[in-house]
Amino acid sequence: MKRIAAFLLSWSLLTGGVPLLAAQQTVSPDVQALYQHARTAQAADDNTSAVADYLKIIHLDPGLGAAYNNLGRLYYNMGRYNDAVPVLVRGLRIDPSMHPAEIILGASYYQIGSFDKATSVLEAALKALPEDRFARITLVHALVEQNKLEEAVHQLQQLTNRDSKDQEAWYLLGKLQLQLSQQAFERVHAIDPNSPLSHELSGEIMESMKNTPGAIAEYKKALEVAPSDVGAMEHLANAYWTAGEWEQARDSFARILQTDPNNCLAHWKLANSLDELNLPPVDALNQVDAALAACPSLSQARVEKAKILLRLGRPAESVPELLNAEKSVPDEPSIQILLAKAYKALGDSSHAAQADAKFKQLLQAEHAHEESHAADVIQANQ
Q1: pLDDT tens column, 54-109
Q2: pLDDT of residue 25
Q3: Disulfide engineering: 118 pairs with which of 142, 227, 231, 232, CB 3.0-4.6 Å?
């Protein structure tokens, strides 16, 4: 609450709003003199005197809406939110068109913890002033306090649509979407903690925490409950594959293909598992060809095919596969390693040297990016 309070305070001091004295209203010389004195007092940080002047103005001219706006805004800037509310409410009754005052009223309600009132007032203000960022971001905070997260996400999306570089809005949006995801996950477990989906979800969470053995255990539990669940099969196979447990990965991907014979990712990863196990390359080649038949644009499968062709002593056939893959992922260093190897096998030292040089260049760029990221992390934590 303190952080948002500081932000709101700085905004209110800088933002304009209703004219201090409305041009269309005739005021007495006494009111005009008090207004000038109040401005001078505010400029000198003598807010107590300025408050007294505005109170006198209201006493002399109780129908002067702008005076209520000025006093309410001043109370807000002083952190006297409870005093600001009734003054701004009264002013808006006199002149409902003072929408900037409406925004300050909504922000005041937020500061005193009346989040429902803050929401209704700010929503009304935004109908008149839809571009006002302060009103919308304050509305977001009020909605969050009421656990109306989906509504808050909607408001933040309007901010990011209007300004794609609004970093605060993106931060809050990510934070709320994560919170909504957590709530949805909790609901999944609450409905049936022993369902395949519950176990798969637990496995995904464990994988995100780098707990591969725990994830594998959860995926196995999912398959115990539902042996034909393709989603659980894929999770388990990928967990084995990521962990380099090639025999288990091989068997798991083969099982998936019994259910889904056109699954190109399963064909590719099965080929890779067979290759890692140093099994006959022809079997792996058959799998990678099946992957490319189903998904011709799968660049990883082309790289895998090139590796297998090199193992079979067929470098001339591997080069087109690698060049095709390079078009899709030009910054992948491993492709250049294989190209250099293939060109060397073909006796093409010139192209081999070019591929080797590009590999080193990509590797340097990769290391430079990692070092830059590490430096940013260190600086951010100092």
Answers
A1: 999 999 989 898 899 999 999 999 999 999 999 999 999 999 999 999 999 999 99
A2: 59
A3: 142
Identify the CA nearest to 241 among candidates 208, 216, 211, 221.
216
Residues 367 and 161: their CA atoms lie apart, in Å, by 34
CB 278 within 8 A of CB 246: no
320 touches 335 (CB < 8 A): no
Q: Is 339 exposed, middle or buried (0-12, 13-18, 19+ CB in 10 A)?
A: buried
CATH of domain 2-146: 1.25.40.10
pTM assigned to the model: 0.59
3-state SS track over the chain: CHHHHHHHHHHHHHCCCCCCCCCCCCCCHHHHHHHHHHHHHHHCCCHHHHHHHHHHHHHHCCCCHHHHHHHHHHHHHCCCHHHHHHHHHHHHHHCCCCHHHHHHHHHHHHHCCCHHHHHHHHHHHHHHCCCCHHHHHHHHHHHHHCCCHHHHHHHHHHHHHHCCCCHHHHHHHHHHHHHHHHHHHHHHHHHCCCCHHHHHHHHHHHHHCCCHHHHHHHHHHHHHHCCCCHHHHHHHHHHHHHHCCHHHHHHHHHHHHHHCCCCHHHHHHHHHHHHHCCCCHHHHHHHHHHHHHHCCCCHHHHHHHHHHHHHCCCHHHHHHHHHHHHHHCCCCHHHHHHHHHHHHHCCCHHHHHHHHHHHHHHHHHHHHHHHHHHHHHHHHCC
The two domains 2-146 and 192-206+214-260 share their CATH topology (first three levels equal): yes
Question: The tokens of 220 are what?
Answer: 């196995």
Domain 192-206+214-260 has CATH 1.25.40: yes
Mutual angle of helices 264-276 and 281-294, in 10-degree steps: 160
Domain locations along the chain: 2-146, 192-206+214-260
Q: How far apart are CA 73 and CA 76, in angstroms?
A: 5
